[in-house]
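Reopening this one. Same input as before:
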Amino acid sequence: MKRIAIFCDGTWNRHDAAHQTNVVRLAQAVKHTAKDGVKQEVFYVLGVGAGRGSNRVARFLDRFLGGAMGMGLVENVEDAYRALVFAYEPGDEIYIFGFSRGAYTARSLAGLIRSCGIPPRNHVHRLGEAMTRYRSRDPNTHPDDPESFLFRSDFAPYTATSAKEWQWRLQTRPNLCVNLAVNYLGVWDTVGALGVPGHWMTAKLFNKRHEFHDEHLSSMVTSARHAVAIDEHRKTFPPALWSEKLDRMNLAALGLESDASLEPTTRDNWAYRQEWFPGDHGSIGGGGDRLGLSTFACDWIAQGAQRVGLEMDARVIDEVRAGQNIREHLINKSKRSVMTKVMSLRKHHRAGPVRIEDVSDITRARIACDNDYLPKSLEKIMKTLQEQITKNDLLPRA
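Same output, byte for byte:
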């Protein structure tokens, strides 16, 4: 058994940038071998629009088409899946990370695994077949459809992707098989606009090619965290949130009945968490010269992975934490590119959370130390937050 960690970088982001994202920083933190002797393999995927190409024109087109329109995302999902197929052995643990459109890549990869399983290496020539099935809108390709069971029993005979399929395999294909799971999915501010931003005239035509992506969270993922930006105002960067079913999934993970209440005080024990953090998109996922806020979200995602078994170098994590600054500027770059300025022309405030348990401790600390921090995205619950902070004696003294 080994641990496989796949890291999918964000839009325009790459490993050799002057200012690294949280994706790269955590990828560097994963130990080659854990204290228990288990090997840990890391795979890194460049972000879309990262400037691939053999000449200046090709690199410009990649940055423009990948950054503005999301081109290359499907290929990134395929690259990550191919790497997993070559590395995976039944019983291995899987950890997936991503930022921005890389977060969408990570979530789509988990959806592809749910849809098709993980085949043995000698089926690598059939990966195109798996992608075709994943893209299909036919109801028969739903992961829990009997036809999907038949497909996976042939394509990925050693992995079952749900308890229902496991039972089906026992009855119809009694061969050696493991119950496949993604041990952890950790993502920073998933961007929902895969292709052309939704308010552009050509959006419907261009984005239709991305509709097949399954970015939803399933119980095949046994633990997950999503850090979401409160102060991202670009209309072109809408967040793709996980649904309300997180509560039901947490109840099931805790062994509680579906009609039980999920106490906010038990949040530290929840397997599935989606919390809002202060700052813009880059202040959550990194990649700018201001690290004070992004390091908090980096540490939070790292803690989730460590909690379920992925071992990281304590020295690297300590270096990350050393840069934390709760009073850091909400915009993580002191200088913005022309493309970023263009995409910032249409601004709006994100809807924000409606429950205080979905607000991170870091956000509470920012409110406590900065009386001027009153984001519109929190206006529905700000009064309750302030009352709770005052009750806990966290507000700054005059």
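So the earlier flakiness isn't reproducible anymore. For the record, The radius of gyration is 21 Å.
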